[in-house]
């Protein structure tokens, strides 16, 4: 099948660019130095490619992601890098399961659900989950008292992923990681889990980096000048054209919109509707023409789709089912 | 099952409010005066409720929505209010199928795919699909020459749905509909299809209103003071809390974000991450507490979910499968 034969809108990844991204990250962070985050791609098929490159430990954001990886035979070492109150499904998994905790309530929940290992989640500056660094030691002690294995700490410097200047990003990451180091000194354990695509090479403290977006990328990460290329796009069809603007069939239900509008090469995107993107172009646009729409944020974009079509040039060579959606 | 027993995040509709919304709209626009748009709820189960109230003709935005309604026995009169280039799946449906056209290319596509009836789609001010009003007559003539039945015109005044002042909204709608009337005079046919939840009672020209959001509503439409209440919310669990803020498990993959952040009663929403909403609250927030998160835009929110749970008070009384997702 050719790219032109796909029904639109279609989520498509360039197989060569995806492969290059996977290899570039594996070269920088071999083996256990990378704990790929599956939330960005939500695909066990893509996770298997990461595992084949030597990364056997994974990061998840939802219980369904954990269940899906375990069922796919990728359960060597699964980290739910998120707090959960009902952990029964986690406790039932045939996999090594570690869950983030940041409070007495989440420690108690882990114990009640049959989870055996935890990381103490530390707030390193992003106002989201994570305990205060000075509280980490006390929580670790509590967790151990409750019979849980405490493997170490995690702390996600998500507020720094988009800092454009590399030196500033590196400096701010060091400051954030100093908080995590302080907590780690109190907590103990082998694991210091942190980082993401934006700080994969500037985070010098983490023993493992939780990057996910690097595999497929988006326009937000593309601005950082990282050695990963935008492999993912939406293929659309121009369904209407006027002298001032054109409309393609890629809309709000095909695109995560929290980072703003997508991009179309040589065009200015005006706005998106449920099933449309309105844009104006330097060159004349013809009804029926195909366009590539570049998403601003990979994670919530992929979560709208059932599959990622893989292409080599104009040839469709396979697909990656997006089988880890939902909760 | 109780509301408190649902795994979170969960998409939930208050059954009584949903029912009241359906009845209020049916009272205002009985029978064929309303052509419910299913893109907002993507659920054949909910469409069946609309049909039971007398609305047997539906509006769709995608081919899959058309297929799903036809398969559910709701194919009396299905309008795809959108342009498509590959109409073969539409031509194969066991249903009365009408499709919007706004160009020679879309007319030719309708004919080639075996579609028999069309509406001429007219641009009434929203820069999206639709021909210029003065081109509508020529396109209707062309469509008839190609053997297509031309049922009339459609023109969506989507740019006016959010105008806060009712009188201004009504005035602007009249101006937009004057363009559609002009086109209709040239095109002929019985159908003048237009409107939405925001203009359901101020659009005096349309023979049928394409409203969809009224059934479930969202915070954007709630601002207009319409006689429809917010029936839809996300149920979340507070998974982390600090003195300054709290975090619930309802994030970017559970919420359409193009209209901005969701709302939480008595709280200020700071931002959303993939699986989190960070907020600060007037009252202390406890880990494990449940919160209701009100989406800003119903359509792309529902499209992330497999089902809508129905509740009466705190009792879960059923569910509406969201079975029309994808394309």
Detailed description of the structure:
Two copies of one chain form a homodimer. By secondary structure, chain A is α/β, with parallel strands linked by helices. Chain A has two domains: 3-11 and 228-321, Lyase, Ornithine Decarboxylase, Chain A, domain 1; 15-214, TIM Barrel. Helices cover 27% and strands 25% of the residues of chain A. Chain A has nine helices and 16 strands. In chain A, strands 1, 9, 10, 11, 12, 13, 14, 15 and 16 form a nine-stranded mixed beta sheet that branches. In chain A, strands 2-3-4-5-6-7-8 form a seven-stranded parallel beta sheet, covered by helices on one side. In chain A, helix 6 crosses helix 7 (166-187). Chain A is elongated and about 70 Å long. In chain A, 57% of the residues are buried. Chains A and B meet through strand 9 and strand 12 of A and strand 9 and strand 12 of B.
Would you spell out the secondary-structure blueprint of this structure?
2 copies of one chain form a homodimer.
Chain A lengths: L9 E5 H14 L15 H9 L4 E4 L2 H9 L5 E4 L7 H4 L5 E5 L2 H10 L3 E5 L14 H10 L3 E7 L10 H22 L3 E4 L13 E2 L9 H4 L9 E10 L4 E3 L14 E2 L2 E7 L2 E6 L8 E5 L3 H5 L4 E6 L2 E7 L6
Parallel strand pairs in A: 1-15, 2-3, 3-4, 4-5, 5-6, 6-7, 7-8
Antiparallel strand pairs in A: 1-9, 9-10, 9-14, 10-13, 11-14, 12-13, 15-16
